[in-house]
Amino acid sequence: MNYEAQRVKMVDNQIRPTDVTSHSILSAFLSVPREEFVPADKKPLAYIDTDIAVGGGRYVMEPSPLAKLLQMATIRKEDVVLEVGCNTGYGSAVLSTLATAVVALESDEALAAAATGNLSRLGYDNVAVVTGPLEAGYKAEAPYDVIFLHGAVALIPQALFDQLRDGGRLVAVIGEGNASRATLFIKERGVIASRPVFNTAVKSLPGFAPTPEFVF
After folding, report:
1. CA-CA-CA-CA torsion for 123, 129, 134, 140, nearest 10 degrees?
2. Domain spans of the chain?
3. Model-level pTM?
4. pLDDT in tens, 26-42
5. What percent of the chain is helix, strand and coil (3-state, nearest 5)?
């Protein structure tokens, strides 16, 4: 299979028609080999417009919403980005072409090892893969200019907002199923403002369910 041709078709047929116009975003998706970040038996499916299972109940997000979410973040070349839920590293690789440095957080040890191997083998040397609970973020390298959640969540923990630099952006899909909203959070003078941008449906990240309330 000609994967380079498949990448071009992905960008032209899936990403451009969903109002992704950023040249840097389009170039990133043209350059990163998505097939290198999925299981061997799924390589022929690497460029279809769907989430791809990579094990442990986790998924590489389908290309069109991923591109739209990254465009929302308005990532600059000098930005430091925290990706929450990097799984096998595809989103991290895309982010690495947009930002100066990426901290790729993963809670699943096997997926973190796969991401480390993939990114190292392909030369994405401005990405550091770290492990820990996704909902806790990664305080050691904070603050971040951008925090990107690679999956849908029910809520954003305060810990992530605390790790956002003043003037920084956090991009997440809030909700479950077709009722989910891609939402942009911006931190200004310590205050968080939010704006829903579009409806979408992506797979959920673990660890972000609301805490059950005790009922008498």
Report:
1. -130
2. 3-200
3. 0.94
4. 999 999 999 999 999 99
5. 40, 30, 35
